[in-house]
Amino acid sequence: MTDLGEITWILGMHVTRDRDVGWIALSQEKYINKVLERFGKSEVQPISTPALANEHLTKLTSPQVDVKSYQRAISALMYPMLGTCPDLTYTVAALGRHAANPGEEHLHALDCAFRYLRATSNQQLIFQRGLPGGTDLHGYVDADWASDINDRKSMSGYVFMLAGGAVSWSSKKQASVALLSTEAEYIAGMHAAKEAVWLKRLLRDIWQQPNPDAPVPLLIDNQSAIAIARNPKFHDQTKHIEIQYHFLRQQYESKALELTYVPTGDQVADVLTKALAQEKHQRFTANMGMRCVG
To answer: Which CATH number do you get for residue 193?
Structure first.
């Protein structure tokens, strides 16, 4: 083995570190610029959000544009989305659901994603030492009820934070139709609970945590969903919810999770469930530890 010194690149991500100040930043600017050049988007007009607010894409039964080109573009966007750009997660997920039958509407939405990527190509995901509660893992979880106009299924989204930056995030359409917004939020909470358990075990293995057995705070903006998880009493309106979704309640009862209410206006995971207006999108993106530099 050879010691190559301070890390500067890993898997195409540029790593910047200041040990004295106590922060580390991850950037994929070089990769993003290559993608923009490859798809002829280097000179497009930048925009401030990756999708139009409350935009809903229509499902087609047959393709209207070149499928392979559309799929290649989606694939190119997936790597920054998985690496350092959680703000792209909802948009890439929405575009990916139409990869088999894209149309002009989807191409326009894809173009918006590229224009946003050009505007934020110098964005970094930053982790900083010494922030209040910075060493404590905590998560935000949200759902957008019946948001898919094609089948009325809801969107789940979560993001987990550590040292002021996002370490895990997801935007996913739920497998079944939720009859109530509370049910959609409860199902989203179950998915986040599974991730919280895994992250807690991972951190226990790789890092000597100050409080390894402390519950992971999970911030939810739906009081009813929190009440269902906290109260094991039978509820007439929730008896149809599949048993698997009560995993959230089980983790709360075992004190692995601490369920906390957060106002909708402060729900960071909202950016992972729908396209937002500029002010909210930029605020929640910054709250995930993402900053534009230079």
So the answer is: 3.30.420.10
Beta strands in the chain (DSSP E): 9-10, 13-18, 23-27, 123-128, 138-144, 155-162, 165-173, 216-220, 257-261, 290-292
Check: CB of residue 141 under 8 Å from CB of residue 188. Answer: yes
Backbone φ and ψ of 264, nearest 5°: -55, -35
Residue 183 lies in a domain: yes
Q: Does residue 83 contact residue 253 with C-beta atoms inside 8 Å? A: no
* pLDDT per position as a tens digit, 211-248: 777 899 999 999 988 988 887 665 555 655 656 667 88
Secondary structure class of 265 (helix, strand, coil) = helix
Domain membership flag for residue 158:
yes
pTM of the model: 0.91
Q: What are phi and psi of 141, to 5 degrees?
A: -140, 140
Domain count, the chain: 1
118 located within any domain: no
Q: Is residue 269 part of a domain?
A: yes
Q: What is the DSSP letter of 184?
A: H
Q: Which domain holds residue 183?
A: 134-274
